[in-house]
């Protein structure tokens, strides 16, 4: 397969998508294009471009402590569902914060504030890649946390830019897990530095359903297998039968074709990674720059974060719950 043909095809697909998003207020409904099939076909048959999907097996064992589950579960009752308009100031501030933290030029990133019919206020937003610098961020016009979701999405846009500054087709291949890690990392860093400007607790609360999704992702077509598993039993005990059933129902009804489970599972692991590396801006920036579709996650982590070695992975990640507890404390104080 000709890499040049794949790259050209992708560029034309992204250009069509960018124009459509701007013309339709951030909505992808009805979008069609004759481009994109070449890379999709090549990516499906190329084993080398699937390397980034190889995840260390022990990640499956990473779960929240009962203490953190209790804190997060109790905080759900305090959510008032408030939202506010995303201002030009918020867009500018988030763009500046992320650009400076990762040393990335984000001046060409387009931000579309979508109407509630396109994107509800509780959405995290999304980023659509376009060339090296001209990515498109779509966020709701009104949001539960304007600065938080903007920082998260600008970080993902920065990740795209860092990757695409390298040559080759592999630089165009990314995945939801690493995007989640980078986005959550930037969000947590912003919350640590500016707790009064970010509703971080609203983001941390999502880990409740994301942990369920992580367990369900192993047997999405057979939920009873998850219910009977060790993790299912722990969650039933820590949250109680009523909440357990409610979260399960929401995951299966909120999105079709298992997308909520897939999305939640990746975001849970991404948040764990972000918590583990929190404070190492240099390491995270390095990860973004070396990230490539033809490299396994473990290889990229050990290169970007020299203090972590494959044989010590489990010990390194064991402390994420302590970091989470600190962030919960910070978020609770901010919400009080």
Structure characterization notes:
- The model has no long low-confidence stretch (mean pLDDT 90).
- The protein has two domains: 1-46, no CATH class; 47-335, no CATH class.
- By secondary structure, the protein is mainly α.
- Strand 3 and strand 4 form a beta hairpin.
- The protein is globular and about 55 Å long.
- Helix 3 (66-75) packs across helix 10, helix 8 (206-216) packs across helix 12 (259-277) and helix 12 crosses helix 16 (320-335).
- Helix content is 58%, strand content 5%.
- The protein starts with a helix and ends with a helix.
- It has helices at 3-23, 37-45, 66-75, 88-102, 146-164, 176-193, 200-204, 206-216, 223-227, 230-239, 241-254, 259-277, 281-290, 297-304, 313-317, 320-335; strands at residues 84-85, 110-114, 126-128, 136-140, 142-143.
- The strands form two sheets. A three-stranded mixed β-sheet has the order 2-4-3, with helices on both faces. Strands 1-5 form a two-stranded antiparallel ribbon.
Give the helix/strand layout.
Layout: H1 3-23, H2 37-45, H3 66-75, E1 84-85, H4 88-102, E2 110-114, E3 126-128, E4 136-140, E5 142-143, H5 146-164, H6 176-193, H7 200-204, H8 206-216, H9 223-227, H10 230-239, H11 241-254, H12 259-277, H13 281-290, H14 297-304, H15 313-317, H16 320-335
Parallel strand pairs: 2-4
Antiparallel strand pairs: 1-5, 3-4
Helix pairs in contact: 1-2, 3-10, 3-16, 4-5, 5-6, 5-13, 6-12, 8-12, 10-11, 12-16, 13-14
Which range does the strand content fall in? 5-15%
Shape: globular
| Number of E strands | 5
- Structural class category: mainly alpha
Strand order of the largest sheet: 2-4-3
How far apart, in Å, are the first and last alpha carbons?
58 Å
Q: How is the quaternary structure best described?
A: single chain
Radius of gyration, CA atoms, in whole angstroms: 20 Å
| Domains, number | 2
Question: What fraction, in percent, of the residue positions are helical?
Answer: 55-70%
Contiguous helical run count: 16
């Amino acid at each position: 397969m000709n890499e040049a043909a794949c790259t050209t095809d992708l560029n034309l697909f992204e250009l069509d998508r960018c124009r459509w998003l701007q013309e339709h207020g951030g909505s992808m409904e009805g979008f069609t294009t004759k481009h994109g099939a070449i890379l999709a076909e090549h990516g499906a048959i190329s084993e080398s471009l699937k390397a980034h999907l190889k995840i260390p097996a022990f990640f499956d064992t990473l779960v929240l402590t009962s203490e953190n589950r209790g804190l997060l579960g109790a905080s759900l009752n305090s959510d008032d569902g408030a939202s506010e308009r995303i201002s030009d100031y918020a867009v500018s501030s988030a763009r500046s914060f992320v650009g400076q933290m990762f040393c990335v030029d984000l001046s060409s990133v387009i931000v579309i504030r979508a109407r509630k019919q396109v994107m509800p206020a509780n959405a995290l937003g999304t980023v659509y890649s376009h060339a090296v610098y001209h990515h498109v961020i779509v966020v709701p016009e009104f949001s539960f946390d304007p600065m938080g979701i903007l920082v998260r999405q600008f970080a993902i846009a920065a990740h795209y830019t860092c990757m695409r500054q390298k040559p080759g087709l592999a630089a165009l291949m990314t995945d939801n897990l690493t995007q989640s890690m980078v986005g959550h990392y930037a969000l947590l860093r912003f919350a640590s530095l500016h707790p009064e400007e970010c509703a971080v607790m609203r983001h941390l609360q999502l880990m409740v359903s994301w942990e369920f999704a992580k367990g369900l992702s192993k047997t999405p077509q057979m939920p009873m297998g998850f219910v009977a598993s060790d993790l299912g039993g722990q969650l039933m005990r820590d949250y109680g039968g009523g909440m357990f059933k409610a979260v399960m129902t929401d995951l299966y009804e909120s999105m079709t074709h298992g997308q909520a489970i897939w999305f939640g599972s990746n975001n849970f692991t991404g948040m764990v990674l972000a918590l583990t590396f929190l404070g190492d801006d240099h390491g995270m920036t390095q990860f973004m720059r070396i990230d490539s579709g033809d490299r396994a996650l473990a290889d990229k982590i050990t290169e970007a974060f020299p203090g972590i070695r494959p044989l010590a992975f489990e010990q390194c990640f064991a402390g994420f719950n302590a970091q989470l507890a600190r962030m919960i404390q910070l978020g609770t104080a901010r919400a009080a």
